[in-house]
Amino acid sequence: MTDPRLSELARLLPELKLSTDPGDLEHHGRDWTRRWTPAPLAITYPASIEEVQGIVRWANGVGVGVVPSGGRTGLSGGAVAAHGEIVVSLDRMNRVLDFDPIDRILTVQPGIALEAVHNVARERGLLYPVDFAARGSCQIGGNIATNAGGIRVIRYGNTRQWIAGLKVVTGTGELLDLNRGLVKNASGYDLRHLVIGSEGTLGIVVEASLNLTSPPPPSQVMLLAVPAMDSLMRVFAEARHRLTLSAFEFFTDRALHHVLAHGAQRPFEETHPFYVVTEFDAADEKAEAAALSFFELCLNEGWVVDGAISSSEAQAAALWRLREGITESLAPHKPYKNDVSVRISAVPAFMAEMQELLSAEYPHFDVVWFGHIGDGNLHINVLKPADLDNAVFVEQCEHVTSLLVDTLHRHGGSISAEHGIGLVKKPWLSSVRSEAEIALMRGIKAVWDPNGIMNPGKLL
Amino acid sequence: MTDPRLSELARLLPELKLSTDPGDLEHHGRDWTRRWTPAPLAITYPASIEEVQGIVRWANGVGVGVVPSGGRTGLSGGAVAAHGEIVVSLDRMNRVLDFDPIDRILTVQPGIALEAVHNVARERGLLYPVDFAARGSCQIGGNIATNAGGIRVIRYGNTRQWIAGLKVVTGTGELLDLNRGLVKNASGYDLRHLVIGSEGTLGIVVEASLNLTSPPPPSQVMLLAVPAMDSLMRVFAEARHRLTLSAFEFFTDRALHHVLAHGAQRPFEETHPFYVVTEFDAADEKAEAAALSFFELCLNEGWVVDGAISSSEAQAAALWRLREGITESLAPHKPYKNDVSVRISAVPAFMAEMQELLSAEYPHFDVVWFGHIGDGNLHINVLKPADLDNAVFVEQCEHVTSLLVDTLHRHGGSISAEHGIGLVKKPWLSSVRSEAEIALMRGIKAVWDPNGIMNPGKLL
């Protein structure tokens, strides 16, 4: 540790755990994107809010960028440190601090894994409803920084909706204690909501109070084989009308292909163009009958040609695996990811146009679609042919993204539904946000982080 | 209209409806507070977004403050114009612009009354769930500016939760089109949430897209007589556990006294210290039986000594009137209003301390309590004795507020739960928000409104 800046940091915070080990620099310098070469100055592992404040104050003094680092499961390069930044890993700040059964508020440190939050809530007879496949590794602080969505948004909304309070260290090292778990607090700008989704560019979340809720009644999972794209939204409309939905997800035959190759079990003998996985309340016979009559209607209308319904938790998990295993099954193919959203009503027209565009522009690539169709959120993964150079591949994909952006713009959509802007989507921020909005964001960033040290180069 | 600034405005916007009639100045220059003498420069009634932009640009040029004006049912002086400001009344921008049944989004102009939104939603078989007694006069733009709460927060949250998109004219006259109805949109700072609750100090809401939801099943309303303060939270805990609540409100015998004097019908023969009005789902016999067994439990435990349950809509309305009629019944007594909140778990200790404080400090005043106890939100109205000068009365009340603020601070509460800061609570903003938070708010305000013309003097 010969860098004089690091010696100064060690002098200021003698207890701070700090590493310049090349393995740590590599590991903590990147997220699930693999496009940038990690090159942080060092990795810090603060154990307290005071240490986080100390790091940020030091960084202001020496002019080093600060990259907050959670589970690094991000897909937009938001947690990449490629330019000599100091990484603030929240791995050691991963404890449950408090639970109040009357408030139904769980207070945690930011480095706790989402799945650990689920488990603690369950032990208390309650539910923290935000959920997605990376639950075992992603951290709640990162969930907040990206306003994480996932598979239950249709019922429970995004992370934003579950944050009762936040402690945040700003870009100047000030500690804010925002909202403090109040249900009602009309006392000026809700800075909590400004921090949620700010991708570490305003400050670092150092503590979070999460609202928990009652768990839903027992549920069932249904898998549906859908022969045509324009049936997807009809099935969704009927499902929403007739059932109490917790999830309504779709994927294509290409997605199924990869997830089966990765070890999942084939659900139907035949192959179909589209599949839906939906989960809904099935508390009693009446609810189960409603599910059956929904299925029969879809079958009679020709919107669905085959189906399976879970009758045990194991079966439910097997059906979910077909959807949740997709991201992992694609990872070896270095996918280029698009994560787009439109209003739900715009999904059919947008999907049709996008399919046309993609088949014209990607005739030789394997394009895999899936996503949260009931939220208007589609994931389009383009797989890299094994023999194609990565830089060339990304360049070709970005060309298509630029075309996609036009289509999105016409449909009032967003280039980032839930992954965030980070580094990956930055070139297209102006397709979603107007010049005036971006100017306001820059102005706000300058107020919170006057020296521009917080996650520099990301988002803005 | 001899003021040269107004002549200039009329020249710039020849179609703009504008009034300097003393009656209009008086009517549109104030809200439900009566402490300030209205003295606006003029009242404008724009009919379009372009006219709102034109007014704001003109105001920047001539250095006149802009006061956005909705239904003026506010209780914190947020819509008061007492210093030569231009008032922007949204009364003429009160139309429904669009409804999409797939998105379940209703797009409206800001001047539409909350009750009109309820009605339009109902006609579509859907629900806009934010609700409170001023529904007939308050406007959706004002609801957004104050993040209005009300009687259904326990189930549906505040206004914030229902805003899918906002068009806003900033302090420089720029038009922002925020979020555009997307369910998922992780593309930088969510400026929509910064505007919600900003009390007109950042800009003017000129269009809103509201999420609608499915109406709840049929409900029942129960009135409970509660003999002691410490039973209130026990009754609430049981109700939340056993029933699906839409509302859980309380009021005191003093509140009942005034509402009866105002024409409501006496519910029980005897008088009791506290009353609860609760509304809950009663879709079937099972749910009705749960309500009955909840009531019996409360009775057996001695938490409740009498009760009434609605068996018709008319009866439900009569029970609700006991709670909803309170504000109106107190109005002739020029109440000094406190609108405070604490975490739900802190309610019992806070209420006990507050009651002690108030009986020590207000021995001769009529103090009326009511509120949304399930949200931790209490309204404390101190009635002005008829023979006491108003200024002296307010001064005495503010002295007590300062004591109350200490108690609140110890319990982590807020001086404004849902009324906003406006002018009335401004002296105590620093009891809820830290110096660092207030500095950030000021910085953000300067970014949105560099000339400081938007609702000057309010909030900050």
- Tally the beta strands of chain A: 16
Strand order of the largest sheet of chain A: 13-10-12-11-15-16-14
**Average pLDDT score of chain A:** 95
Number of helices of chain A: 16
The name of the CATH architecture of the largest domain in chain A is: 2-Layer Sandwich
The value of Rg of chain A in angstroms is 23 Å
CATH topology of the largest domain in chain A: Uridine Diphospho-n-acetylenolpyruvylglucosamine Reductase, domain 3
Q: Greatest interface and its residue counts?
A: A-B, 75 and 75 residues
- Beta-strand percent range of chain A: 15-25%
The biggest sheet of chain A, with number of strands, parallel, antiparallel or mixed sense and barrel status, is: 7 strands, antiparallel
Residue ranges of chain A: pLDDT <50 for 5 or more in a row? none
Distance between the termini of chain A: 32 Å
CATH C-level name of the largest domain in chain A: Alpha Beta
* Assembly of the depicted chains: homodimer
Structural class of chain A: alpha+beta
What would you call the shape of chain A? globular
Q: How many domains make up the coordinates of chain A? A: 4
Helix content of chain A: 25-40%
